[in-house]
Amino acid sequence: MSILQDQVVLVTGAGAGIGRATALAMAEAGAHVAVADIDLAAAQQTAGQAAGNTRRAIAIEADCGDVKSIDAMVARAVAELGRLDVIVKNAGVTRYGHIMDLTEADWDRIHRVNAKGVFFCLQRAAREMIRQNQIDGRGGRIINIASISGRGYAGASNAAYAASKGAVISLTKMAAQQLGRYNINVNAICPGVTRTELGARNAITRAAERGITVEQLLAEQEAGIPIRRANTPDDIAAMAVFLASPGARNITGQSYNVDGGLVPS
After folding, report:
1. What DSSP string runs through 147-168?
2. What is the pLDDT of residues 145-154, one digit of tens each?
3. Average of pLDDT values for 168-179?
């Protein structure tokens, strides 16, 4: 039997990159998946791919910086798939910028999704999981996607982004302490350099600023990683599947670097 057989997993920001890889990996592990993204067409594409490995996959349009949209997203996932066993909060935004160039609008845009959105997704999912625990004792798993930027990584895209991801790491610890009594595990994954569409856009800006090619920039990044390779989205997805699995039943309050040894935990 697949390790997540018949579990219901909601993944935010699942239209591309880490979110898409995570939704597909959860489906391959036997889960039913709710694929949420602000881009409905992208969510539908991921859900269509996931449907090949699972009995149920639905696409949900959601803005993870808006509390009403978050409420509607979780409500629909539960209404259509019957419950919520796992949520992976992956939706996030950033841009490349020096600390002295960041504006109030940058701060608000980044924290709206990366910090506020993560908190309210967690709270709304936990409400369902607490109710479920009262019925069948199964609780749930909450997996936050943070970043090594929240641990002081000098190569962070910007200081506001780093602050938002530091908030996610702190939230993970506090939530694990307060939700453990309901059989809810809360953990975070801190990706390092990861080859995604968002990372590719930032790389173009960084390379242009330094007057080098994107290829040179990527080679420099990988040379600084002890294991000498960047992540693919599948590397992060594999950790998410593990944290959702029975093997992680006694792991909570932890934030795991997946970065090839780039930053100390």
Report:
1. -GGGGT-TT-S-HHHHHHHHHH
2. 999 999 999 9
3. 98
Residue 84 identity: L
Of 50, 40, 46, 45, give the one whose Cα is nearest residue 73: 40
Give the CB-side neighbour count of residue 139, counting CA atoms within 13 A. 17
Q: How many CB atoms lie within 10 A of CB 12?
A: 30
Biggest CA pair distance of the chain: 60
Q: What distance in Å separates the CA atoms of residue 242 and residue 132, rounded to the nearest whole number?
A: 22
Percent of the chain with pLDDT over 90: 85
d(CA 91, CA 99): 23
256, with CB counted inside 10 A (0-12, 13-18, 19+), is middle
| Annotated active-site residue in 153, 161, 182, 256 | 161
Category of 211 on φ-ψ map: left (φ > 0), alpha (ψ -120 to 50) or beta? left
SS3 173: helix
Q: Active site includes 161?
A: yes
